[in-house]
Structure formats: structure tokens, C-alpha cells
Amino acid sequence: MADKEYLNLCKTILENGITKDDRTGVGTKSIFGYQMKFDLNKGFPLLTTKKINFNLVWSELLWFIKGDTNIKFLLENKNNIWNEWAFKKWIESEEYTGPDMTDFGHRVLKDKDFAEEYKKQMNIFKENILNDDNFSTKFGDLGNVYGKQWRNFNGIDQLKNVIEQIKINPSSRRLIVSAWNPSEVDTMALPPCHTMFQFYVSDGKLSCQLYQRSADVFLGVPFNIASYSLLTILIAKECGLEVGEFVHTLGDAHIYVNHFEQVKEQMSRDAFKLPSLRLNEFDSIFNLEISDVELIDYESHPFIKAPIAV
């Protein structure tokens, strides 16, 4: 079961992880080098021990597939998971004239009055992204993040190329897409955490292995598992293949200090049966729309909220 595989990772970190400082200043428990495997024939690996919003997973993946790097598409699909990085760009600009939002990621947790003001300023920001094209172009774009690298890595459409190679040369050991572009890392709002993925075809089944250099285990990893599993399923369908495994290899796998209690709560829960997907017919993943993928029979425990480290 997907939940068991994931919760074993959580347990390993809490029991064996080392305490480390980190870029955000929050602090983590961390291990280095860990692998999980998910058989995609045994259900879609969307965790059930806490609710995961599938719309967020799917709309973000479609955003990557389209090569988009502006959060406007995400906001149009009620997806707020990248807002903080774009918001930071705005409040640090000369055009921002509102109250001081410095270090909002930490302050919002400690000051209720500030949290209300932050919410107000974020709503203003989102409205501007959705309704002002010039503002959206200037502050909604996150730089050369995942979608740019997948579809235009120094002029190369990696995702299109790898799909073509799966179709014509499925035995290739070069079915790789890299999001880590050293020449452009400094132009990204957040350097890619899931850095490279490789496909493998055997017995008519498509498998995928992701290498993730940095893994926020409580907030990020459940999305990553679902996202790359979905990508594998979609590409398998386009290529006329069955699905195999999603293999998730982690570099620095960490749980933030302010997520410990949430992780323990999730570990105390029993898993439900995994859901499945309903896909509309399509000839290319590049022509997909949000309505073409539907999650069915998803039963889960409630959401568990936790602060994001920016």
C-alpha cells in the first residue's frame, strides 16, 4: 500500500534522522538516500491517511506539461501552492507599497494580526495576477522552473523527445528528463527539488524513477508521488503501454520541526483502499485539459494543515 510505504519513510526520519539547520531557518530532521516503490497496478497512489487535493496535483502537473511558468494558470484552476514564491517577488519590488511583509513565512505563524494583514495582501496579489496582464507578466512568472526545463531546456523539448523515444526505441537507457539546469538555476524562484526522472519499458509496461534532491516529506512528497505516478500513467496511455512502477529516490529527505506533530497524527491513522483514475481518450498529453482526468473512489482521512517553509 502507498500509505505504508510513505509512513515507513516518516517513521525512519523521526527515529533515525539527524537534526539540521536549513535554508528557511525552521530546522529539520533529515536522512540522506531513501527509496520507495509504488506498483501502479494496485491503485493510484494518492495517500489516504490524510486528504490530498487531487486538483492541485493534476493542475500543477498540467502546468508543467504545458511548459508554463506563470502562476496565473494555477490560480485560474484554484491552485495556490506556488503563490508564496511569486508573492515574495512582489513584496520585495519597488512597486509594492503595502505594509511590511518581510519574513512573512515565519511571522504569519506567530502574529494573528499580521496573519490577517498577510491574507489581505495575498488576496490583493491574486486578484492582480488574475485581472491585470501586465502585473501577471511581471510578478506571476517564477522564472525558468520545471515547465520551462521540461519543454525548453536550452532549446530542447525534453518531454516531447522522451515520449517519441519511448514509442520508437523503448529499450533505450536514455529516456531521461532533467529539470536541473546549472546555467539557469539562479533564474528560478525555487531551484528544482525533483531534479531528474527516467522511464523504463519492460514486458509492455512503463515505469518511472524520480530522483529528488530535496524532499519536504510532509507537505511535498505526497504530491510528488501522485504527480509522477500520474505522469507515468498518461505517457503510458499515449504510448500504448501498460503501467509498471513509480520508483521514488530521495536525496535529503526531511521533516520540518514544525511538522512533527502533524506527521505523528498521520502515522496514527489506518489507510483506506487506494482510488483509481478515469481518463478521457487523447492522442497527446500536450492536448490534455483539466477535465480529461478524473479521480474516482477516493476515501481518506481529513486534511492535516501545516505551515509551508519559504
UniProtKB/TrEMBL annotation:
> What biological-process GO terms show up in the record?
dTMP biosynthetic process; dTTP biosynthetic process; methylation
What is this protein called in UniProt?
Answer: Thymidylate synthase
Q: According to its UniProt record, where is this protein located? A: Cytoplasm
Its biological function?
Catalyzes the reductive methylation of 2'-deoxyuridine-5'-monophosphate (dUMP) to 2'-deoxythymidine-5'-monophosphate (dTMP) while utilizing 5,10-methylenetetrahydrofolate (mTHF) as the methyl donor and reductant in the reaction, yielding dihydrofolate (DHF) as a by-product. This enzymatic reaction provides an intracellular de novo source of dTMP, an essential precursor for DNA biosynthesis.
**Protease found in the keyword field:** no
Question: Which is a Gene Ontology cellular component entry for this protein?
Answer: cytosol
> Pathway it belongs to?
Pyrimidine metabolism; dTTP biosynthesis
Which residue intervals define the domain Thymidylate synthase/dCMP hydroxymethylase in the entry? 4-310
- For dUMP, which residues are the binding ones? R23, R173, R174, R213, S214, A215, D216, N224, H254, I255, Y256
Q: Specify the domain of life of the species encoding this protein.
A: Bacteria
Per the record, the similarity remark reads: Belongs to the thymidylate synthase family. Bacterial-type ThyA subfamily.
Could you give the subunit structure recorded for this chain? Answer: Homodimer.
Q: What is the originating organism of this protein?
A: Gemella morbillorum
Look up keyword Transferase and say if it applies.
yes
Q: Name one GO molecular function term.
A: thymidylate synthase activity
EC primary class = transferase
| Organism taxonomic ancestry | Bacteria, Bacillati, Bacillota, Bacilli, Bacillales
Instruction: Please state the Enzyme Commission number of this protein.
Output: 2.1.1.45
Where in the sequence is the active site? Answer: C193
Q: Which Pfam families match?
A: Thymidylat_synt
Which InterPro entries is this protein grouped with? Thymidate_synth/dCMP_Mease (IPR045097), Thymidate_synth/dCMP_Mease_dom (IPR023451), Thymidate_synth/dCMP_Mease_sf (IPR036926), Thymidylate_synthase (IPR000398), Thymidylate_synthase_AS (IPR020940)
Q: Which UniProt keywords apply?
A: Cytoplasm, Methyltransferase, Nucleotide biosynthesis, Transferase
Reactions it catalyzes: dUMP + (6R)-5,10-methylene-5,6,7,8-tetrahydrofolate = 7,8-dihydrofolate + dTMP
